[in-house]
Amino acid sequence: MSTDANGTDLLRAALLTDHGSAGPYESYRRLRTSHPVLQTSSGVVVLSRHRDCDSALRDRKLGKADESLGFGLTEVPVELQREAMHRFRRTMLFRNPPDHTRLRRLITDVFTTRHVEFLRTRIVATIEHLLDEMADKPTVDVMTDLALPLPVTVIGDLLGLPAEGRELAAHFVRDLVAPLEPMSDAQAVRRAARAEDYLAAYLGTLLAAKRIHPADDLLSRLAAAHGEDRLDDDECVGTAILLFAAGFETTTNLIGNGLAALLANPCQADLLRRQPALSANAIEELLRYDAPIQTNGRTVLEPTQIAGVDLEPGQVVVTLLGAANRDPDHVTRPDALDITRIVSRPLSFGAGIHFCLGAALARMEGAELFPRLLDRFPELAATGEAKWRPGLSFRGLISLPVATQ
């Protein structure tokens, strides 16, 4: 395990640089090559090889704690940590068994491959509607006209959110998740606290209404939970926030990152246009190539060993998922986009008991969208400069202007 200054500099370069369209992958390569297991001065262990990241995510002696705020890499006042995201951190995303098991069990069946398949017709209809609207414009911003409204509509329908409140709620989600970035500061945490208060008020009101007039949606299920599955108020509101946020954040980034990659690799775009049956495989490659989620953190719960390193309770472990996905020991030609590549599923949705609950839904939305988008707009091309959101954990675009004809 390395702890020298050069390794720390490489880590900071990966975490703090505004990487833009190139992504952090060259910084990852240097870090993975020279310091694949790096311990910071504060004791945080950073992993960048695929086998190490996968092992850490699956190790039941590692779990969740307050690494949710900056992975312990920055100083945030304790009182502010307690204020911010206190409902969000009562969700399965930040809990360990048995609470994690109880919270996840309540909604797991909605996100199974079988149930997601049941949603396919509705998802395709939404895609076709959005593409129809795009067809009326010579230029569009993919992020605002397609990548955001598609998953927001899908998860909004599943939850039972009224259409008129979804866009504003999605705006607040961006502030809410900002402290999950590795180098989040006190200002970001304060904005997250305000965002959570707004979302809690919005969703809390809807949950109260669902208790009186339940419907066939996820909010009604949360509101009506009873017995051993019963949620307290913070768990109920927090889980509603989590489902909404997770339902579009990853998919929005998948669509934006994926299209940017295809536009930068027109031969791959043409191949997918000619062979739409490659769409499911293409989604795996796009997830690997430029992952929507780049980092994931764990806290050591019991003594264990990862990558030959003895870990003690309380230590934070950061897995660099984007680096793991491009590990040359795991995949050949890792920096090339190849939608025909046969490779095991990337770590973009995590692994172990915290594997992303909505992974099947995100994969379906992407697999149904890309062939239709490319077929509908054969002259689709980037126009203007793409703008990437700041930060690393959530890698995605703010704006992606394209010409449709």
From TrEMBL:
Record bears the keyword Nucleotide-binding: no
A Pfam family hit: p450
Gene3D superfamilies: Cytochrome P450 (1.10.630.10)
Cofactor(s), by name: heme
InterPro entries listed in its UniProt record: Cyt_P450, Cyt_P450_B, Cyt_P450_CS, Cyt_P450_sf
PANTHER family: CYTOCHROME P450 YJIB-RELATED, P450, PUTATIVE (EUROFUNG)-RELATED
Protein's UniProt name: Cytochrome P450
Organism: Williamsia limnetica
Lineage: Bacteria, Bacillati, Actinomycetota, Actinomycetes, Mycobacteriales
